[in-house]
Amino acid sequence: MKRPIRVVVAKAGLDGHDRGAKVVARALRDAGMEVIYTGVHQTPEQVVETALQEDADAVGISLLSGAHNYIFPRVSELMKQKGMDDVLLFGGGIIPEADVPGLKKVGVERVFPPGASLEEIVRYVNEAVGKKRVGV
Amino acid sequence: MTGDLLARAREGDKRALARVLSAVENDEPRAADILRELYPKTGRARIVGVTGPPGGGKSTLVNRLAGAYREQGERVAIVAVDPSSPFSGGALLGDRIRMQERALDEGLFIRSMASRGHAGGLARTTARVVNVLDAIGYSVVLVETVGVGQEEVDVVRVVDTVCLVTVPGLGDDIQAIKAGVLEIADILVVNKADRPGADETARDLAQMLTLGKLRTEWKPPILRTVAATGEGVPDLVSAIARHAIWAGESGERDRRRRDAARSEVESLLRDGLVRRLRDRVGEDRVERAVARVADRALDPYAAVDELLED
Question: pTM of the entire structure?
């Protein structure tokens, strides 16, 4: 049996605007993935522990609060500590373009700006997880 | 490789455990080895099921129960099942939302499962996932079913005690749960009991219990909880403990575990037979037969006879 892709979709930090995260979660589900939705106000520790216990292939974090330069590096650091190098980390939300290269450097493989299409996100997760799985 | 993974899972490595659970959930070839190794160590955990209609507060209640058992010093695992989409096969697993406050508790492990097209309120492999958590040393395993209607009664074949959670205001809908799901309940919980109508709901449930003949001499207690605040949860915990003691003494627990063993063996047997048959018959022949049945060129019975021949 083909193993469905498992994705944790999380809202990290203090902003409670989860509409975007829910829309993305729904789109990933409709693409045949199993989406573990954590709800809002998650700490990096909670997000990483969730991905670990759920044996997720990917973690997507939505951030609108401006805390991305703290949250993403911390999530990435925790994932490395726990040996989760084979888990994809991506994000989206209000993140200035100027910050994106820095985030990529710390292991956020892709950042989707506002207006990114759902098809694009689904295609990306499918392809990127596919590559990760072949790699292990 | 499998042995190493298991050893690490036993030592408390949650990532290794998560991998083991995936192997079992996905029927990976090594799943059989894993269960062969672990099965002798199962049967020690207290396994509690929480079932009931959607929106009744099952996840919130499971979160509260987990907290209560953690206070008693138990190591707790939660298996929360949500439905898969029949169209895409995907699933939105949202039970954790109510449990995330405990995500970092060292003595707790939470795993979400999609039903993956299985219709009994659980996933096909939920019993095996519970077995793994039991064998690995979790002393309490809480199993949350998908939101159920009437016929999703698989949980009774996996757990020792079934809690059926309902809420006030379902009105006559409560009639709908009286068959099937109500019959498997060991404990009836009226959650959101701070809402109007809780008394009526409790009364309806009590009445329904008097209508039918009880399966055993255990009379399911009717409890009121407000999962959001934790009210009534200690009573629920003691009712579960009382049921466990009764089930142990009366032989009900052994009987249920025998039923569970039967259903597990039969289900694996069925899987095995179907796989063998499919290999022998071949997908192509099945597809061709299906096409002819759809065109009304062949009736389904004749199609099956034809496929099973030779």
Answer: 0.93
